[in-house]
Amino acid sequence: MSKHGKVLVAMSGGIDSTVAALMLHEQGYEVIGITMKTWDYASSGGSKKETGCCNIDSFNDARAAAVHHGFPHYILDIRDEFGGFVVENFIDEYLAGRTPNPCVMCNTHIKWRALLKRADALQCDFIATGHYAKSREENGRFIVSKAIDETKDQSYVLWGLQQDLLSRTMLPLGGFRKTEIRQMAHDFGYPELAKKAESYEICFVPDNDYRGFLKRNVDGLETRVNGGNFIDSTGKILGKHKGYPFYTIGQRKGLDITMGKPVFVTAIDPEKNTVTLGEEMELLKKEMIVGKLNYIKYPGIDDEFEATVKIRYKDAGTTGMLHNHPSGIQVSFYEDAKGIAPGQSAVFYEGEDVVAGGIIQRT
Known about the structure:
alpha/beta; Rossmann fold; five-stranded parallel β-sheet; 17 strands
């Protein structure tokens, strides 16, 4: 029995989770590796083979690393749980005219709970992942904060983790830069892993064609939504679109309409099957409402709380004032924020720390 404790490490077979597991093993923790199978992509009729967490080669890579370093490894099949929530939410959100973030939904509702359940069964003290973020305990709260390497920081996708999950979570990569992790992979004897390409696709849409995924998985979708109108902000009809679920706020390319100037998707109305187009300035907003909140640093906030707000994963953040609202939080930005998309996550930061996060409801 390790004096440091027993930790269940989520291992995808990629460089980050593998190095996280080996790092903890080297530090003296009793490590158990686990690889989660979330999706059988072949069943959805896609044109590309399984990737990332669903790739049999990745399963083998994770198992090989565990066996080589002398700790157990298991495969956990969560396809039913994953498909029943994450994929259905993904489809439902697009059909509601919103832009979902399935990675956040998976972390919040499926992956961490599945890990914790198996950790309890295996009598593990902690769970760990290869996410680039930090965690700590302060004033009785378990807090997520940005990684040292801001180019890889993943704190944005962890806003939904509740306190009981964070109290058991270790994030060993948060204090390192990606270059250092690549060097560690070399040092651990995995030079090929250090060169392994990273996957940025949604795991169940590895060909990156979410429109094709919707067509394959929603019966009669094209018949139901094809032929709606492109309109401008006054309601003037500009042309026909191919179906409102196939467009996202801020989209410019692939509109297949000539306006004589650059135009962007500024609004989507599923009830009327309309997609509003406008100039770039029409994407600028000063306010939004965020609901389905999870508080991390504090159990709540004062009615006026200044924060840096990220409205997408790679967003640099915009400063604004947060106000309590019947639907959650109203954000009043000091400067215009561009391309706010209902359905996406909004994450509120105080310095490096995640204060809270939620789902954008409307502007």
